[in-house]
Amino acid sequence: MLVAILNPVHFPCDICNQTEEAGDVASVAGSTDHWQGEQLVLCRDDARGLRAVIAINDTTLGPGLGGVRCVRYPSDTAAISEAQRLAAAMTLKNAFAGLPFGGAKSVIIAPERGVDRRGLMQRFGEFVLRTGGAYLPGVDMGTSVTDLQTMADSGAEVSCNAEDPSPWTALGVAAAIRAAIEHVDQRDGIQGTRVLIQGAGHVGAALARDLAASGAEIVVADIDAERASRVAAEVGGSNVAPDAVISTACDVLAPCSVAKVIAAETVPQLRCRMLIGAANDTLADDGCATLLARRGITYVPDFVSNAGGVIHIHALRAEHTEKRLRSDVLQIGSRTREVLETAAGSDHTPLQIAVERVRRILADARVAADGARSSGAARRDDARTLSAA
Ligand code: NAD
Questions:
Q1: Which ranges in the chain are annotated with CATH 3.40.50.720?
Q2: Which residues contact 209 (CB under 8 A, 6 or more apart)?
Q3: Most buried residue among 1, 183, 338, 373 by CB atoms closer than 10 A?
């Protein structure tokens, strides 16, 4: 195992400015320009066909919670870069939702056919175990609760090994959409609002049902045409081709599939008034938030709207009732409203407001932790003085 432990540095405000292609491993590990998290672990076991990256961005608030992604990457550096970016986004998401978790993420480079998946996941669980609890893995694209159970068999603590959090993620996204419509259109309810959902998977389909039940007009796009038609028919909506998403007129565009749907080149083509979804990492870079604001498109940062899944994980671990969980997820609506109102009364975008909020949460938590360390040290000094006397 190659382990690169980097100096912890304070959480960046321009977190989304990390470069896409971070260069080779040496330059990633050696440059804090590219990497500003706490710990980066590269895991490799050729006998099991395993190559993986664990990126722990920040553990100020608790263990770094974040899913395990298992997909193909064009290069090792692309995988390392993605793990870092997503880990930083998890710090934002968990802190903004008020959860006792830091941010982390891991990626497993999808193995060749024929590799024993169970053996691979078990081995990965051993690497997770070695982080000593600093990384708390969950499900992400390409992994399932069964994989998480296998990791847990190695002794690693995992965040979810039984329930799918997607319905809670969808509930939170729906709450954010309702709040944004209320803010933008100054009206209650979403009756007649045209919402284009990109990706009719676990979250997108649940979101379509929720919004349609409140009278929204649903349009669905999915690369799986059969799935798109099925979900559209179920909610009395329609569907459009996946490549028509950006240019289709709608009130709300809800990205619920791939990352980086919105780039500087696509912003001018958008025909929506609001952008609010479940997909992590919706913007190619945070400069897009400014371009969106200039075009009068209201963007709710993805880490604000898609936190329902992590809130669900926290509720399971804290043994909250379902009633409490529902109420906590619906708080995403009030947080959305607050961010949009604060941004409207300032020169800042909702993204800048939300990132700044996280920066303050982390700064306060660090001050509190430093205070607790100092008083602990003072108590130990007192005890030493007394026993020497
Ligand atoms: P999913 O795999 O169940 O669904 C994704 C859907 O998107 C699939 O139906 C797929 O065919 C479709 N798709 C893929 N590429 C597409 C494209 N280019 N255009 C249109 N459709 C496309 O995934 P999910 O669990 O529903 O998650 C959706 C997104 O939300 C992901 O980005 C995920 O990281 C994010 N997210 C999910 C959760 C959760 O609880 N599941 C929580 C937070 C964030």
A1: 166-350
A2: 234, 235
A3: 183
Q: List all residues whose CB is within 6 A of at least one atom of ligand 1.
A: 141, 165-166, 169, 198-204, 221-224, 227, 242, 256-258, 278-280, 306, 309
pLDDT digits (tens, 9 = 90+) for 271-304: 999 999 999 989 999 999 999 999 999 999 999 9
Grouping H, G, I as helix, E, B as strand and the rest as coil, residue 116 is coil
pTM metric for this prediction: 0.87
Residues 241-261 have pLDDT tens digits of 999 999 999 999 999 998 899
Residue 40 has a CB neighbour count (10 Å cut-off) of 23
Task: Return the CATH number of the domain spanning residue range 2-153.
Answer: 3.40.50.10860
Whole-number Å distance between alpha carbons of 102 and 58:
5
Annotated catalytic residue 260: no
**The pair of three-digit structure tokens given for residue 25, joined into one six-digit string:** 């491993």
For ligand 1, mutation pick of 256, 300, 303 (most atoms within 8 Å of CB): 256
